[in-house]
Amino acid sequence: MGREILWIFHQTYKGLPLKIMEKYIIRGSYGNRLIKIHARKSLALSNYVTIFVHGLYGFFNENDINDKVYILAKKLTEESVSNVICYESSRDFSFDGSLSYEKRQESFKEKTFTQELNDLKKVIDYIIDNSEKLFGIKKKNLILNLHGNSIGGTIILMLTKYFPYIRKISLCGTGCGRGTANRPIQSTTPDESILLDSISKYSGELFLLQGSKDNIVPLESGIKILNHAKRAKIIHREIEGANHNFSKINEVETREATNIFVNEIFDFLKNKTHS
Fold first, then answer.
1. Which end of the chain has fewer surrounding CB within 10 Å, N or C?
2. Domain 4-269, what fold?
3. Residues 6+ apart with CB under 8 A from 142
4. Residues 181-214 pLDDT 10s
5. Measuring CA to CA, which residue among 18, 15, 64, 65 is closest to residue 41?
6. Torsion 122-52-58-113 (CA) sign
């Protein structure tokens, strides 16, 4: 699998030079599409790599310091909890990341669930094969955590082949059924029974974070996931007033929603489980 390093960021951390981000391009799972991978290294050596799986139309914007995924990735690496991988699945994008949000949406809208799943598999295979080069982790010592937002979490449910590598899975606003919007990735989502059968094979730690005012994914759909993950160690948190993507509390845009998202996921990944 070929790759090309696009550029490397350097930043000062407590007076010390620190290489914080590398970007890679690998081939996508179909056509001429490409996958952009953002690799952020833990400040101290860690055998953990946390992969963030975006939701519908999602992408990682390393220039938005207020983005909740950016904040969480920075916190995980600077506190040496985990290395971090964020990626953008097969899109038409420029190598310098200059495409607009609208253009990114346009290149994504015809993707199917299987294409998106296969892109994630390509990313995981790349990390497994290159863990020592990326993060200084020997393959035998590599431990994966995965976090999925919305349909990104649904995609994670289908990673049965990789479950032996995965210690923790966190989901936010994730359900187990097809969405109501008329988009190929939702209309091609596997039947609920297939998704639930897959997650029943997972035996690691599973965290579901939901907002009580999620008007995109019914809360009951997420609960079904927990009910079928009988082999997993389960943690469930429902945040009163939060919306689907944790940008609002009781319909008001607020930093509190972002802070809740970041702290809940961070504590889970750091092993600070809730009572």
1. C
2. Rossmann fold (3.40.50)
3. 47, 49, 127, 128, 131, 165
4. 557 777 788 889 999 999 999 999 999 999 999 9
5. 18
6. positive
